[in-house]
Amino acid sequence: MSANTAPTMSAAVSAEMQQQQVFNPAPPAAPFAAKPGRPASEIFFANAQHPLPAAKHADRWFESLSQFEDMLEDMARVSLDTEFKNELDTIDDWFSVLAEPERTAALYSL
Questions:
Q1: Considering just the CA atoms, what is the radius of gyration of the chain in Å?
Q2: How does pLDDT run across 4-45, given as a tens digit for each residue?
Q3: What angle do CA 46, 52, 55 make, to 5 degrees?
Q4: CB 43, CB 31: distance < 8 Å
């Protein structure tokens, strides 16, 4: 009788082991757990179907910043030019003889 009960015992143990393998109460690992060097945002937004509004605003902000930096570099280069300084002094002398309404009208017309 022990020979007959042995196969059913092993079958019961095998079935129980299969159930334990199927039922896993632990939550699945996060998608970024396998690669600790990657930020979560890279994984979550890498497969985005549409661009994020915040990303568009950030791109526009960086473009504006780049244009502003270029303008400042140009202004710094021009301000070191002696010919430009002489022309600016001439304009300043001309403005000094104008009355306030004439200065305002000249600036608005430019």
A1: 38
A2: 544 555 555 566 655 555 555 555 555 555 555 666 666 666
A3: 95
A4: yes
